[in-house]
Amino acid sequence: MVIQCRIGRNHILHMPLPKIIAVVGPTASGKTAVGIALARAFDGEVIAADSRTIYRGLDIGTAKPTGERMLGGDLKEMAAEKPLMVEGVPHWGIDIADPDEVFSVAGYQAYADKVIDGILRRSHVPIIVGGTGLYIRALIDRPNFTEVPPNDALRVELATLSNAELMAEIAERDPDTASTIDEDNRRRLERAIEILRATGKTLAETQKFDKPRYEALQIGLEIERDNLYSRIDERVDVMIAGGLVDEVRELRNKYGNNATAMTGIGYRQVSEFLDGKTKLKDAVTRIKFDSHHYAKRQETWFKRDERIVWVHDAKGAIETAQKFL
RNA sequence: GGGUCGGUACCGAAGUGGUCAAACGGGGCAGACUGUAAAUCUGCUGGGGCAACCCUACGAAGGUUCGAACCCUUCCCGACCCA
Length: 325
Fold this sequence. Notes:
two-stranded antiparallel ribbon; 12 strands; about 45% helix; about 15% strand; RNA-binding
């Protein structure tokens, strides 16, 4: 893929887009390890694309990679923000928000673009690693989020309206969108209204795409469902043994029970246990099942993207990356 | 050995003569989703044709009845109680 830069009057210069690699797949499919393998093979730096590991303090329940905050090798010249060094590979995008902060795709897009610029300046390969499909799409397909930021005041106001009332307003002003949103899907109804009232335009009219910024290779980690589910179950047991309950207790003490980060799988179930609403055993089972569902949703999301090259392991990932680079 | 309560689809659990292939929940499967996305939401779920319909089904075997998951008999299994 190339972008065309008009220089002077008639000279068109074909400038290749910088290449980035994205490693995608469901939770517990082994993305972290593959990301590290790729980074080592191609002199890369990892940017996590994960809506939960962005939060400081959510460590055990997010299976966040462990490492040290430091500047290694030729990173020394840029000390503004330190990446997490995991097995010698810089990881960005981890611990960039507080658990009670509201973070969203738009913020991620801006952050990741900035980090990628730095990586490219260092002549390293940016390797996006994560399971949050929307975040990855934000980087590759360039949806433009600038027009309508969330409006807390409006959301408070909308809280008094029923779903049917929200739907009626949408149906009147933006029937196309109305037909694509289920009336029970409160969250999407509210966002649609937010856009309508802020711009007077339909959802479709506000959804804009910028030009591609990168040439991306997406590598998907394919893993058999049964196998994936057992890996998830094992990982959940390890999280519990590793102190998830204490982690959640501390987070609640510090940030309250309603912090945005508490909505993540693992956190909300343990939170219920701490409230005395469930037995630990049942909370653990719940975490496992909810993680299964989550993994399924991720697969549904990624399956739809035909650009993704599916591989089974680090070896396959390195081979396809090799050809791409 | 005696007694009581139970055995329902992958699991839990309703149903107590026809409108029951059987509510509901879980699980499983499939899907939607551009500013909360590990979020939010939807559909399917005995088998076959995938509509009509047919077959197999409510522990097992008989029986009553026009008709039984639902009533009766015996048997098997489980829980609890008395011995």
